[in-house]
């Protein structure tokens, strides 16, 4: 099959930079407006970034990780380092860290399920601590935190391309691939995890078509996955969530790949609500079901998926018009047990789910 994939047509979801006055600013694509409007917002306020994460303007585990790290840098450059000027030299570093702590905690708590957010804020905080211990002044720490975000952004694309290369090897010729939610370029800084696998396989001419689950209630599949795949030149068909079984029964799906928000030590995977159902269906129909995720999505502190915190979102996402006497339950994620997963595709290769956390930890060091 001839490949006509054009990834240059995909936007970057987040990018940290500086404005004309040298203040740090984060530019992000407001994904709430897609597919209708491609609107980029810039802000120098870490609180605005927290808001963008909570309201799903920026969403997807790796993207909110990068945005969370950027929020820390916005605070450090635009507020923390400026405030610290009034302190004496010796206490300046310690007081900078003391002020950073609650800011990082608030950023980290913006959404509970994707561990990438905690991973990113913890990385920023421990980097700042190390620099202060080495005697750096708050201004230097802030500039280094800014540079650390640029490193996180670069690493994100590199890691996603490695995931893509590892996953593409699993994709058969003429593949009809099902995915759920959006684990694409829009959910990362660039390229995507599950869709990174699709892009890499499509570049090799192996993808006949992607079926994108609509992904109720927010519609990440219908609005975002379809938008970015068609932009990049990958044939895509949107289906309602309740159609996947029928397509599998008619042998219209060869392969399933999804992303992840948190992976426990035993290989249980939290991802967008509905993923568990797709895994059960794939198992029933003997269709390979793979999860694609970077090392930053593993949480070895949790023995299994039952301990993963599941975000509950506003009832209006499910029922825009409330009905008197009717309750709504709106968990944003579910947990797919490891035994339903054929393998976890990481930047270090593909592993059986039960071994993945150990194998990844050994390589991260
Ligand atoms: O609520 P969202 O849109 O942030 O949920 C996103 C997902 O569930 C993705 O599948 C997951 O974060 C992986 S993104 C590479």
Automatic annotation (TrEMBL):
Question: Which reaction equations make up its catalytic activity?
Answer: 5-(methylsulfanyl)-alpha-D-ribose 1-phosphate = 5-(methylsulfanyl)-D-ribulose 1-phosphate
List the EC numbers from the record: 5.3.1.23
Question: Location of site Transition state stabilizer?
Answer: 181
This chain's source organism reads Ellagibacter isourolithinifaciens
Give the Pfam families listed for this entry: IF-2B (PF01008)
Alphabetically, the GO molecular function entries are: S-methyl-5-thioribose-1-phosphate isomerase activity
Q: Name one GO biological process term.
A: L-methionine salvage from methylthioadenosine
The encoding gene is mtnA
Residues of the active site = 261 (proton donor)
- The molecule here is called Methylthioribose-1-phosphate isomerase
Residues spanning the membrane = none
Keyword terms: Amino-acid biosynthesis, Isomerase, Methionine biosynthesis
Binding of substrate: at which residues?
Answer: 59-61, 111, 220, 271-272
């Amino acid at each position: 099959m001839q490949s006509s994939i054009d990834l240059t047509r995909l936007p970057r979801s987040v990018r940290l930079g500086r404005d004309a006055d040298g203040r740090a600013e984060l530019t992000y694509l407001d994904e709430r407006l897609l597919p209708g409007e491609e609107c980029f917002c810039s802000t120098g306020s870490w609180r605005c970034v927290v808001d963008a994460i909570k309201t799903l303007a920026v969403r997807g585990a790796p993207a909110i990780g990068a945005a969370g790290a950027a929020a820390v840098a916005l605070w450090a450059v635009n507020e923390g380092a400026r405030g610290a000027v009034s302190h004496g030299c010796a206490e300046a570093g310690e007081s900078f860290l003391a002020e950073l702590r609650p800011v990082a905690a608030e950023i980290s708590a913006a959404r509970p399920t994707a561990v990438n957010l905690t991973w990113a804020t913890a990385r920023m905080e421990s980097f700042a601590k190390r620099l202060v211990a080495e005697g750096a002044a708050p201004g230097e720490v802030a500039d280094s935190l800014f540079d650390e975000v640029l490193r996180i952004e670069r690493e994100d694309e590199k890691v996603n391309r490695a995931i893509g290369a590892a996953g593409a090897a699993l994709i058969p010729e003429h593949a009809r691939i099902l995915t759920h939610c959006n684990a694409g370029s829009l959910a990362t800084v660039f390229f995507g995890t599950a869709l990174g696998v699709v892009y890499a396989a499509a570049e090799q001419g192996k993808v006949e078509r992607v079926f994108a689950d609509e992904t109720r209630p927010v519609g990440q599949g219908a609005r975002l996955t379809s938008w970015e795949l068609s932009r990049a030149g990958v044939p895509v068909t949107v289906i309602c969530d309740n159609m996947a079984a029928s397509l599998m029964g008619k042998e219209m799906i060869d392969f399933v790949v999804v992303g992840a928000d948190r992976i426990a030590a035993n290989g249980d995977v939290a991802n967008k609500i509905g993923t568990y159902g797709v895994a059960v269906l794939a198992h029933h129909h003997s269709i390979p079901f793979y999860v694609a995720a970077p090392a930053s999505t593993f949480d070895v502190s949790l023995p299994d998926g039952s301990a993963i915190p599941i975000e509950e979102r506003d009832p209006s996402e499910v029922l825009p018009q409330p009905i008197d006497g009717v309750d709504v339950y709106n968990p944003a994620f579910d947990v797919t047990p490891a035994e339903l997963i054929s393998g976890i595709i990481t930047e270090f290769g593909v592993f059986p789910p039960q071994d993945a956390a150990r194998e990844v930890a050994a390589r991260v060091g």
